[in-house]
Design a protein that fits this description.
Number of strands: 4
Largest sheet: 4 strands, antiparallel
Number of helices: 5
Structural class: alpha+beta
Order of helices and strands: HHHEHEEHE
Helix content: 25-40%
Distance between the termini: 29 Å
Shape: elongated
Radius of gyration: 20 Å
Length: 152
């Protein structure tokens, strides 16, 4: 896997700001040819630096009015089994194995608090390797988008 240079990092910033940016637009903004921009993006995809292209969603407008971070304490050495079960749950946006006083952190989006309650109390707490949960409600969220650093 190759190291990223200044142009690669600039391309990544642009794609994080707008994943739908055309190759031509990216090339113009970072001052390289379209072929060069295409090759760099393709290489970063092949190397796994770019894992995919996605849309940033306003969850409330999309009918997911309740969001929460849920922390889990799990049975030692059960991470892979728990992860597979969590991946099957509705509304799970992010799963992380973490260090500290809990083992796993989830970000979930549900239609409302009733659906959130059902997810936590019925689905997550029924996973046999989950020892304890804590739910942190999200009152407001802001996605951090890399700033445009004068690439135009």
């Amino acid at each position: 896997m190759s190291r990223l240079d200044r142009v690669d990092r600039s391309i990544l910033r642009l794609l994080q700001q707008d994943g739908r940016a055309s190759i031509r637009s990216v090339a113009e903004r970072v001052h390289v040819s379209r072929a060069n921009a295409y090759a760099r993006i393709s290489r970063m995809v092949e190397d796994g630096v770019i894992r995919g292209f996605t849309a940033r969603v306003d969850h409330e407008k999309a009918g997911q009015g309740a969001s929460a971070y849920i922390t889990l304490k799990i049975v030692q050495n059960s991470w892979r089994t728990v992860r597979e079960q969590l991946l099957d749950l509705p509304g799970v946006a992010h799963i992380a194995l973490v260090g500290g006083e809990f083992d796993v952190m989830l970000l979930v989006h549900t239609a409302d608090n009733r659906a959130l309650r059902e997810l936590v109390l019925t689905r997550i707490q029924n996973i046999s390797q989950v020892l304890a949960t804590q739910t942190l409600l999200v009152f407001e969220e802001t996605d951090q988008v890399p700033p445009d650093q004068g690439l135009s």
